[in-house]
Write a structure and sequence with these properties.
Layout lengths: L3 E5 L5 H10 L3 E5 L2 H5 L3 E4 L4 H10 L3 H9 L4 E4 L1 H6 E5 L11 E6 L9 E6 L12 E6 L3 E5 L4 E5 L9 E6 L2 E4 L10 H12 L2
The structure holds glutamine (GLN).
Glutamine binds next to α5.
Amino acid sequence: MTATIGILALQGDVREHARALEHAGARAVPVRRTAELEAVDGLVIPGGESTTIDKLLRAFELFEPLQQRLREGLPTYGSCAGMILLADRVLGGAEGQQTLGGLDVTVRRNAFGRQVDSFETDLAFEGIEDSVEDPLHAVFIRAPWVEEVGPEVTALARVENGPAAGRIVAVRQGPLLATSFHPEVTGDSRVHRLFVQIVRDSR
Ligand code: GLN
């Protein structure tokens, strides 16, 4: 059966994620209410502003139900602000900023600094087999990086060049996947395909 993957539709590139998920063979549906959250096999948390998404999750009474589903093992992919929301620990967060948690990492918000607010680079990505010969083009927009990973977390991609070389920008912990960058804007759906596979494997 086709996997149904929700996209948290409070802020961010909902349509672009839907297109990439469908291209990867899943059914994509927006999620704004708990009933919609209950009906999905996996969830994408798009980029945006993690502080705003945090507030909207509370306003829509989704924060606790989503945290509960994460604890139960809901496969979830967080991009950029979505990565921050999945992280157990945040450096450079706003006052009072909370995260859903579940991913045993420390992320640094807006890590690449003001001069490199947004940049693009090519990456090899573990779990995407052809990404060594055909690197993934990664678009970073005021992105976080992963500063520390717990023992259960695998680093899947690192910045390869420039001042941030070596920084971890993609991780996986069981059914949780997170990237600092925005694969939904490039037309390359390999990260989404990997996530769809994670969702299928966990069903
Ligand atoms: N800087 C944003 C934050 O802290 C994330 C940016 C993004 O998602 N593109 O939430």
